[in-house]
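$ fold --in a.seq
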Amino acid sequence: MKTLLKSFWLLSILFLLFLGSLARASEPEPVLLYDTVSGRQVSLAELGQRLTGYDVVLFGEYHDDNRLHRLEAAVLASAYARNPQLTVSLEMFEQDIQPELDRYLAGEITEIAFLASARPWNNYSSAYRPLVELAKEKGLRVIAANIPRSVAAQYARQGLLDGVSESMRPYLPAVHLYPDGEYKQRFFTQLQAMPAKNSGMKVAPEKMEAFYRAQCLKDDAMAESIVRYCRQNPGRKVVHYQGDFHSRFRLGVAEKLQELEPAIKILVIAPAYVDDFTDLPDKVKRLQADSDIIAFLPSPPDKI
């Protein structure tokens, strides 16, 4: 009997230890926020308060990292708690679906009906739905900021906007620029490092210019969407979510926003993978040119 009791207690202890290890394994990996000017770590509450001093926040993300998506929702909630005069803006929705998005946020159509017409990204449910649902719950506007993908794809293929249909022309930016300089150089460098999908071949030089112009078209469209909203709704803050390349080094959308509205106050958040969390103040100093806030994450990404 004593032997059975000892065996029972031993199994119980081992089971509890096993449950504990599962719980630890399921805990989200930490993401640490650092200010690039002071080199100081900032809390989520501090960041939420700081955002109130800016007109536009550009949150650059890696699209396939769920840790960043969880942080994005947390940042939005923190900012809203300190200033409810917020508006969400998303690269992931295109301007032509704005009416359907507005109707969904107003409760006029179901989520199923909305998604059937909104062309959501494949990871919408886990990555961007929390942002939209928080906005819906709090009565916040959401801007479908991007140019319709069919227009950008056609432009990348043909290198011309002449063939854009009349129905899509209203979504073209009023000012479309594709300047030479740092942004173009960085774009070409990144493109050269990315093998073409399924082929393993690098992008041909003659296609790189067309792809760069399509990238700038998206930047122009998103920047104009944000500035147009800010002009129509003075006093409201915009938190815009997009791929990291669109705003890192304060280029892309950030640069175009500043050109359209020189007095606009912009805060840029960018992610950075690190092997460990040692010496982060030193690491963040080397990233001062990248953004105002760096979100450090363990590398490689867990993608869960």
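$ fold --in b.seq
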Amino acid sequence: MALTASDYRDMAAAARRAAGVVGLVGETVIDLGPTNLRVRFSGGTYLARAAGITASCTAGPVLAIRAWAAKAEAEAVHLEATP
């Protein structure tokens, strides 16, 4: 199943909503509907991964989730621009 621009936008919105309530212990999994966003701490960096998109941040899990959401939005824009 290929993800659509709408899917990416919905997942980005769900990730942003979850960013406010995340308490990171070990690996956190956030249900985004079509896939799960996994957030973990590794080597001094928080990594957020889902739907082939990876974002990282050293400032904390919330900012890693926000960075992932921004990349998901950019993917939605790219899909809409591609015929």
